[in-house]
Please model this.
Amino acid sequence: MICEICKKIFKTFSSLKKHVNKNHINITFEKYCLKYLIKDINEQYCELCGEKKRFIGKENLMYKQYCGICAKKSESFNQMPTGRRFTMLDCRLKELKKYLKSLCSNQEAPIL
Ligand SMILES: [Zn+2]
Ligand SMILES: [Zn+2]
Model:
């Protein structure tokens, strides 16, 4: 691992991180990563909504997968027991059927 600013060599990523935080105070470690380590600048934005994501700063994980809001959304759905997930979808389906029925009954001569 080499510090791209002063070309000092480090054994681990975390010692490089400490070094940048301590010695290059005019640049945050996040900015350092964006400038020298992350190839895709879009990495810092949430792929679902485009919001800026939280910086983690690990060698294999620079940013969270989603922004806080999207992570919460996907988490609450993923953590739902499978059974409940189906019930939820089933409820939606019933609502939809009811809605379609009401649409049809409102028409004097249904097309179908
Ligand atoms: Zn340095
Ligand atoms: Zn998002």
